[in-house]
Write a structure and sequence with these properties.
This protein has helices spanning about 5-30, 35-70, 85-95, 105-110, 110-120, 135-145, 150-175, 235-250; strands spanning about 75, 95-100, 125-130, 185-190, 195-200, 205-210, 220-225, 255. With about 260 residues, the chain is α+β, with helices and mostly antiparallel strands.
Length: about 260
């Protein structure tokens, strides 16, 4: 569907070789009909190659525009932390933050300062969906990811970090003589998990694909935005999925409070 990198390199090399051939023909062949014919053939080939390469590139740009506009995919990356500064900026501006992952401990640790500021400055509501640490699902993920991985402990760590975040936010707000109105809520699921993702204000998101034993932070990730018109882009689908799971496990909902 997209112009492959090796095809593009081959086209560029072909164009370069044709240019070299034209120069050699002009300098080596004696003036006359033969030189004109040879140079004409190389010139025609050169024009065809340039037109073909340009057409393919324009086609790819058009396809990517459709992917971005219709499906809301802004970029595809080979790492779960490829757009670190972008993530920080969106969390800092967020009024609502939705996080769904198996443990999310690394994510919560990495962006805890931004969450604290969002809680204070934006009265942000942070909703977190994590796996149950003692569920069969979690134990199977541990087996798939390797014996050295302790998902249950990571989930417990994530819950401790959430308490630290709300405690730090309260302390920071108190020092500036402000009342903390932001809040964190946690729910835990048994099996309803498809991918790790974060959604900021239902308008920007990050989704990391999960294929154990590869962990989400090392997996292919998608930067997402709300679609212009269809309303059925990937970000909207993730939002619907999160809201549905959040509703299913509402009886397990806990407001995170500092110890």
């Amino acid at each position: 569907m997209f112009l492959k990198a090796d095809n593009l390199i081959w086209n560029v090399w072909s164009i370069a070789l044709n240019i070299i051939a034209i120069i050699i023909s002009f300098t080596m062949l004696p003036p006359g009909k033969t030189r004109m014919i040879v140079m004409g053939i190389f010139l025609i080939t050169l024009v065809i190659l340039i037109c073909y390469t340009a057409t393919q590139k324009l086609k790819n740009i058009g396809i990517w525009y459709i992917v971005r506009r219709k499906f809301g995919i802004r970029g595809i990356y080979d790492s779960g932390v490829a757009r670190d500064m972008e993530m920080k900026n969106h969390i800092l501006k967020a009024h609502e933050l939705k996080i769904m992952a198996i443990s999310a401990s690394n994510f919560i640790y990495r962006y805890q300062n931004e969450m604290v500021d969002a809680l204070i400055n934006n009265n942000c509501v942070i909703k977190v969906l994590l796996a149950e640490e003692d569920s069969t699902f979690t134990k199977e993920i541990e087996k798939a990811e390797g014996s050295e991985v302790d998902i249950s402990e990571e989930i417990k760590r994530a819950k401790r970090l959430l308490k630290e975040i709300i405690r730090n936010a309260e302390n920071k707000a108190r020092k500036s003589k402000r009342e903390l109105e932001g809040s964190i809520f946690l729910e835990q699921f048994d099996t309803l998990f498809r991918a790790a993702f974060v959604i900021c204000d239902d308008s920007w998101g990050w989704c990391s694909l999960n294929f154990p034993p590869i962990r989400s932070r090392d997996s292919i990730s998608l930067e997402l935005q709300s679609t212009d018109s269809s309303g059925r882009g990937l970000l909207e689908l993730l939002k619907e999925h999160f809201d549905r799971v959040w509703d299913i496990y509402r009886d397990r909902r806990k407001k995170i409070l500092p110890d």
